[in-house]
Amino acid sequence: MAAPTTLPSALADAVRDESSLRRFLHGLPGVDQVGVEQRAAGLGTRSIKKASKLYAIDLAISMVDLTTLEGADTHGKVRSLAAKAKRPDPERPGVPKVAAVCVYPDMVKTAADDLVGTGINVASVATAFPSGRSTMDIKLADTRFAVEQGAAEVDMVIDRGAFLSGRYGQVFEEIVKIKQACGDAHLKVILETGELVTYDNVRRASWLALLAGGDFIKTSTGKVQPAATLPVTHVMLQAVRDWKDQTGELRGVKPAGGIRTTKDAIKYLVAVHEVAGPEWLDPNLFRFGASTLLNDLLMQRRTQLDGHYSGPDYVTVD
Amino acid sequence: MSDRITVAKTYKLYIGGKFPRSESGRSYPVTDAKGTFLANAAQGSRKDARDAVSAARKAFAGWSGTTAYNRGQVLYRVAEVLEGRREQFIAEVATSEGVPAKKAQSLVDTAIDRWVWYAGWTDKIAAVLGSSNPVAGPYFSFSTPEPTGVVAVLAPQQSSLLGLISVIAPVIASGNTCVVITSQDRPLPAITLSEVLATSDVPGGVVNIITGRTAEIAPWLASHGDVNALDLTGAPESIRADLERSAAGTVKRVLRNKQNEDFAATPDMSRLRAYLETKTVWHPMGV
């Protein structure tokens, strides 16, 4: 097994072969379920108001991966999404643009053409999203196609079946190969935490993805319930923080699915600040995968600035 | 045996078919006309009003989409449940408004009759207010009344049940949903009405009832971007002009009826008409 980067000796040892990888992942400390849920709930009660809230809203907008992953997607819908990504609230020029637009591979070119020169990345899901049930060749071809079309970020899904049956080496190899196929594109590894069942598994999958070279670890596809939850994101934030402590490298986290309100988004930002650290409060290191969240952020932003409540009639329909 | 100690109640709000506490955690004592303590009521805040508006907006598509006949059936069912709670309403109206039992009884009876009167209107509104319009061309042109949307209702301060029902029933009869700020000092009949609505067939969110200080919550509803109409009946004189001004910012329908409206008098269609928009359709005609 080939480690993607030069790792400190303890981690280099972990990826030497499959049995040492298993030993490493099972040697990770277990997650205190009650503790992490309590801490997540506790941090969720922080009161963020006025100027801090406005700052949090703008930061959250700049972290949004504006997503459309529907079977019914059309080129027209992707173009309107790209327009919204550039100017989320056309009446308010001060609104920051979002971080990326996330689409299926066949829509990448449409989005990329519209976003040239804007600094907004096109992210594409790949590797037989959302189930990941296909052959390695097809997954690699899927990834190469997305990158050729202009995707600067690739969101891959791991083979949860292989992970749950303990074939960690296979999952590791897959991520390494997809990472190579990505070239310069950033790789986000979707763990699909809703299918991993336990926090211990989430921690193992996070470390596995980090060891294999994923630039981001992402909670979910959004197609499985439960999708992103605060405690799961806590566990993943701990993993990237520990990764930085051991290697000095900064890796990102992306919760996706089920984050619909500004209140939720701010809870996540508090978690990022408290668990990982302030340097992760950056669109390069933390993203929200969302479709409806952006409208709520825009409505809340208007409420903060106008002094009265806004409504869905004042933002664009997705 | 010692005298039984009565159970002192602390009531909650009625939002989206549920009975939540006020987000602010506040409550205030409610007294009878003579100042004797009756119960604690939740003191709603602007955030409760905001939650109520979202609940009302969510319920609007379903409620306005039901057939007028079905809406009428649901409202008749409410009248049945009101009738079942008649004694409780009489006691509450008597203590809240400080009127003798006989007078309270007639007020409650009139209130229930008023509800039935509006229930009967649901499937007649389109016939009375709609029209087929003679036009100079080969078109069939017709106009139908459509509900305005989410209505913020400031319930009358004095008439705690008859007035309340006279302002809520016309709003929901035509398919609107509403957020009601009850009488500040006489909220108990409104709270009991929310229990009636929760146990009849009215979908959650169609009527949302908030107790508290009218002058504190009303400005937030008047300026809210997602509220389509405002009933000023229970608004204190001192803030009426301000409420109208901020309502104009989002082009709301505003009903300016006065506090001292005579609710016992036979009603007319004016309250029904206040929350309706006219939709006109031109349909090309064949032979």
TrEMBL record, chain A:
The keyword Lyase applies. It comes from the Bacteria. Keywords: Lyase, Schiff base. The keyword Lyase applies. It catalyses: 2-deoxy-D-ribose 5-phosphate = D-glyceraldehyde 3-phosphate + acetaldehyde. Its EC number is 4.1.2.4. One of its GO terms (molecular function) is deoxyribose-phosphate aldolase activity. It is an enzyme of class 4 (lyase). Pathway: Carbohydrate degradation; 2-deoxy-D-ribose 1-phosphate degradation; D-glyceraldehyde 3-phosphate and acetaldehyde from 2-deoxy-alpha-D-ribose 1-phosphate: step 2/2. One of its GO terms (cellular component) is cytoplasm. One of its GO terms (biological process) is carbohydrate catabolic process. InterPro entries: Aldolase_TIM (IPR013785), DeoC (IPR011343), DeoC/FbaB/LacD_aldolase (IPR002915). NCBIfam families: deoC. Belongs to the DeoC/FbaB aldolase family. DeoC type 2 subfamily. This is Deoxyribose-phosphate aldolase. It comes from Lentzea albidocapillata subsp. violacea.
Automatic annotation (TrEMBL), chain B:
It comes from the Bacteria. One of its GO terms (molecular function) is oxidoreductase activity. InterPro entries: Ald_DH/histidinol_DH, Ald_DH_N, Aldehyde_DH_dom. Residues 29-254 form the Aldehyde dehydrogenase domain. Keywords: Oxidoreductase. This is Aldehyde dehydrogenase family protein.
